Structure formats: structure tokens, C-alpha cells
Amino acid sequence: MRTTVGIVGAGPAGLLLARLLDNEGVDSVVLESRDRAYVEQRQRAGILEQGTVDVLRDAGAGDRMDREGLRHDGIELRFGRRRHRIDLPALTGGRSVTVYAQTEVCKDLIALRLEGGGPLLFGARALAVEGAETDRPRVRYLHEGREEVLECDYVVGCDGFRGVSREAFPPGAGRVFERTYPFAWLGILADVPPSHDELVYARHDRGFALLSMRSPTVSRLYLQVPGGTDVRAWSDGRIWDELERRLETDDDWRLRRGPVTAKSVTPMRSHVHEPMRHGRLFLAGDAAHIVPPTGAKGLNLAVGDVVTFARALAHLRGTGSAERLDAYSATCLRRVWQAERFSYEMTALLHRDPGATPFEDRIQLARLERITGSRPAEQDLAEGYAGFPLE
């Protein structure tokens, strides 16, 4: 099989890229190792920046998001039993965020892809990306028990942190920057309406907590726990009790409890692979960078990557100039590093490091006091949270 762009991975990055290319009249093939049900059910991100919302709308993939997504104009910081709201539109020139789960984004994009007849192969496990240095790169993959070859003009690796795309970089062709954090997130889904109408980020002496949601009837909540925590050690009652302690306030706010339908533990890491391009192989999303989830940047960074690639390829087709494709890695990395910075700072601001000294605890609280007491500091946080511009 031959195509212009071979896309490895049918997460939101790969599926959105296929949609953007369809709209430009560029053929592509999407290879996904998992089945459709898995892709449409795996729980990941849920916060869409303003730029991501705009891209989905412009791509014709925003109808259900606009009907069912929850626009949020603020977030709340809690510390010392106090509450402080960050007004996003007032601080960012009108930008907001939207709560709309990655699972729903994937469902929408899969439906559009299949409706348009574009090749989308589930159960197609990529084995290797070969010939990236040539003008005919190819992807070897296993599908329905047979090994096949997809020949391409370009390959875009959207296959995540453990995918094969990054392995196609020869030794010495890339450099990795990373940090592993000494804590993780224990996350739950619960069939109960959210206890607040916006996201709540809480700093507590016992550790971080986050109150989020997936819909008006489904809550998504997180607790900071030690790295390597076994989720089986946490009963539902213990989780709710700990959330109540860390989210407590001096007013009459109360945490709503309900049936827990899912539990998981997510390790925390920052990771960047430079460059994001080798020959005609381009990395996008988690294949190139990982951010701790505190800043809600992962899915949004992936969107920025594939928008950059699609625009660069359209520029080449329209003008004959490969200048923007050649600048792909540098263009993406400028945004990636700003998101890495923001996510790192949010993580350091709100989590309690197990090795922190009393001095460091007080510095953390002083930083929170500065943000909640200074409009410029508050604005810097709001601008980072609502999202950095797509170039």
C-alpha cells in the first residue's frame, strides 16, 4: 500500500492530522495497534485549550464538542483552606478552556474518518519505520496476521512514548531531556455530579488534590500519592476521605461522594526528545514529549504538533518551498518548552515534595500568595493555562 502521509497511531494527534490532511486533499493512512473500542474508551486528557477548540471547529470536528463540552472561564486555587478563582477570559483577552474528554474527541474524529472513507486500520501494529533518510520512507506493520508495508512520502509518528517511531532515529541523532517526579496521581471516575462548577487545584500539607469532571454527572478526581503506589491499597472510602481532607475550606463548600467506576495510578514525568524530525519522519505528541498532567497540556501540545505539520505540508504544496517543513522541529519545540516550563512550575507549585524542608514549604506558600495577590502573576498563570498560541 502507498500513501502520501503514513500516520502511526490513532490517538487524538494521529486522527486530527488525518482530518486536517483530508481537508487539504492530501491522502493518508492511519495505523493503530489497538482496536476501535480501546481507542474510544481509554481515559486520558479532558481539558481543551482555546486553540485546540478553535482547530477542531475549523476542521469540522467540533459539532458535538460545542453541544456537550463544558466551557470553563476559570479555575480555582485552594491552599490554607482558602479559595481563589482565576478568571481566564479577564486575564487572557477572552480565552477560556473546554472540558471535553479525549475519548470523545477520538470518537468524533474516528466517525469523520470512516464517513469519508479514509484508510484507518485498527489492529495494525507498527513494527518499524524504515528509510526515513530517503524520499520513500516506509512502515512495516502486522495486520490480521500478515506483515505488510506502507510506503509513504512522509511518516508522522503519533504512537506515544513507547511507540516504534522514535526508535527509527539512529544512535546519536537525538537527545533526551527528562525529569521523573517522586510522586504519582491516583485518579478516579465517579458517577456523581461535580462538587464545583470549575476545576479546583488544591495544595495541602498532605499532598495535592484536583477536582475535575467529564460531564455534568461524572466527576474526575485525583490525589497525589507516592510513586509506585498500588491502586489496590486504596479503598473507595479511603480515597473519598483523603479528597475531603485536602479540598476542605473554611466556608460551607462540601465534597459530593458517589460510586467509583474506575481507578488508576499515573506516574509523573517530564520528557522531551530533540529534534522532533529525522529525514522524512516527524514525531508528534507523546512520541516526542511528555508533560506532567498538572498543566493540562499533553493533548493540546499534540494538537499543536500536527497543526504545524499540516500547515507546513500545505505550504510546500502551494509554494514549492520546504522551508516550513524544515523548521518543523524548531517551531514545535518553542511551544513544547513553554508548556514544559508551565507544567513543571504548576507541579512544583501545588505538590508536596516528600523531601521538602519547612523552608521550602513556606516558599511554596509564598508563591501561591504572590499569584493570588498580584494581577501580573495571576495573568502569567492564566495565559499559560489557557494555552500558548499555535504558530
Helix and strand topology:
Elements: E1 5-8, H1 12-23, E2 28-32, H2 36-41, E3 47-49, H3 50-58, H4 63-68, E4 70-72, E5 74-79, E6 82-87, H5 88-92, E7 97-99, H6 102-116, E8 120-122, E9 124-130, E10 138-143, E11 146-151, E12 154-157, E13 175-190, E14 199-202, E15 209-215, E16 218-226, H7 236-247, E17 260-274, E18 277-278, E19 281-283, E20 289-290, H8 298-319, H9 323-326, H10 328-350, H11 358-373, H12 375-386
Parallel strand pairs: 1-2, 1-12, 2-8, 5-14, 12-19
Antiparallel strand pairs: 3-7, 4-7, 5-6, 9-10, 10-11, 13-16, 13-17, 14-15, 15-16, 17-20, 18-19
Helix pairs in contact: 1-6, 1-8, 8-10, 11-12
Task: Characterise this structure.
- Helix 1 runs parallel beside helix 8 (298-319), helix 8 (298-319) packs antiparallel against helix 10 and helix 11 crosses helix 12.
- Helix content is 36%, strand content 29%.
- The longest helix is centred in the last third of the chain and has 23 residues, at 328-350.
- It has twelve helices and 20 strands.
- The chain is globular, with a radius of gyration of 21 Å.
- The model has no long low-confidence stretch (mean pLDDT 96).
- It is α+β, with helices and mostly antiparallel strands.
